[in-house]
Amino acid sequence: MKDFNAANEIQDLQYFGEFGGVNPSISDSSTYTFLSAKTMFDTFEGNADGCYLYSRHSSPMNLYLAQALAKLENTAAANVTASGMGAIATVLLQLCKSGDHIISSRTIYGGTYAFMKNFLPPFHIETSFVDIGNFEVIEAAIRPTTKVIYCESVSNPLLEVADLRRLSAICKKYKLKLVVDNTFSPLSVSPGLLGADVVIHSLTKFINGSSDTVGGVYCGTQEFINDTKNVNSGACMLLGPTMDSLRSASILKNLRTLHIRMKQHSYNAQYLAERFEKDGLKVSYPGLLSHKNHELMKSMMHAEYGFGGILTLDAVTTDQANALMELMQKENLGYLAVSLGFYKTLFSCSGSSTSSEIPEEDRVRMGISDGLIRFSIGLDHDIERTYQRMKACMVKTAVLT
Ligand code: PLP
User: Fold this and answer.
1) By C-alpha distance, which of 68, 79, 53 is closest to 257?
2) C-beta of residue 257 within 8 angstroms of C-beta of residue 210
3) What are 86-110's pLDDT values in tens digits?
4) Looking at the chain, which terminus has fewer C-beta neighbours within 10 angstroms, N or C?
5) 54 bridge partner residues
6) Which domains, and CATH codes, for the chain?
7) Nearest CA owner, ligand 1 atom 11
8) What is the chain's mean pLDDT, rounded?
9) How far is the CA of 271 from the centre of ligand 1 (A)?
10) Considering only CA atoms, which of 160, 158, 172, 152 is closest in space to residue 104?
């Protein structure tokens, strides 16, 4: 995809710290002084470029990180939040008011699902959950009050890939906003180049990459970002899920190695997925020819970053899944933990953890089986050795017979 590189070349970022440091200086003030009361007033009104007022609105360090993430996602602007859910809630509450309607993929992160299914309806914002690959159903679900189509580029935990070009065309036709959570596929997929209006990340995952913080971002037009920060009506300004500026500084430093980490996560996940599949295990990974969205993902991704670091394996029963995960942890092959994007492999049983907010009957309908293990594959140097040792655990727990 040429646009991606072209856009990156044009806008290369360069920062120096206050004393010539190679990192931008960390500013950790919550409030800012003014030489004149008039400038303070103008800043409050949003008419004094480059001035800061109060850090719930803007801070220099948050802007550095936001700019870098906007560049990552090829959007004009971005805003960083204290968590991924902080970003999701802000975006949806900015775009949808009482009486509005959302169409969402039914296979999404459990917290996002719960937010739309349980939290929003008392505010009279309804959501229709659909199969995001069924465009007829999507068009039929559109109402006069529909404002947003929401999906994950690669879904949690089923790894369904959304056809962002098709969804964007539907959004343009009906004047809706396409909001895409790209947490599973940073760098691999650029939703902004495929027609998304707003791109969201949980920074907690691959982007920060060290499992030492929660964080989030939403990327979009300058106008949309300004709207969310408006002192009178901005969802981020008024709900207040602002990121702490010290955290912005640490995430910005980790972001610099994302391209190298993503290649290694993808390489390792592809390797294991191919081996597990050959062994006859029920494995799902978008990089496998057998994955139902393999060709679609290929048509949307930047090939050099691969198909991402997440794969799932169906161990059939919860008991077998638990036995396997406990043994793999004992053998130091990874941690039995939720979340993803760590240097070490993380595994959890989705049905009883990150998708447990989704009622059992819906989980069954979606295909989240009781024994489904989600693996976030780590940065292991010798992946063949990891494979051999994981395989031994699978044989020992009768997941592989
Ligand atoms: N989006 C996806 C795809 C996720 O997997 C998660 C968390 O697991 C979130 C959003 C929420 O992010 P956070 O935990 O940073 O609030």
Assistant:
1) 68
2) no
3) 999 999 999 999 999 999 999 999 9
4) C
5) 31
6) 6-255 (3.40.640.10), 259-396 (3.90.1150.10)
7) 84
8) 94
9) 26
10) 152
Contact present, 1 and 302 (Cβ < 8 Å): yes
Q: Is 122 strand, coil or helix?
A: helix
Give the binding-site residues of ligand 1, using a 6 Å CB cut-off: 83-85, 109, 111-112, 152, 156, 181, 183-184, 202, 204, 214, 216, 354
13-59 confidence digits (pLDDT tens)? 888 898 999 999 998 999 999 999 999 888 887 777 788 999 999 99
Please state the φ and ψ torsions of residue 213, each to the nearest 5 degrees.
Answer: -160, 160
* Token couple for 282: 């029920």
Q: How far is the CA of 33 from the centre of ligand 1 (A)?
A: 36
Strands (E), 192-259: 198-202, 216-220
How many CA atoms within 13 Å lie on the side-chain side of 310?
26
Residue located via tokens 């229709």? 128
For atom 12 of ligand 1, which residue has the closest CA?
A: 84
Q: Which amino acid is at 206?
A: F
Give the pLDDT mean for 99-128. 97
The residue written with tokens 């993929």 in the block is 105
DSSP assignment letter at 244: P
pTM of the model: 0.96
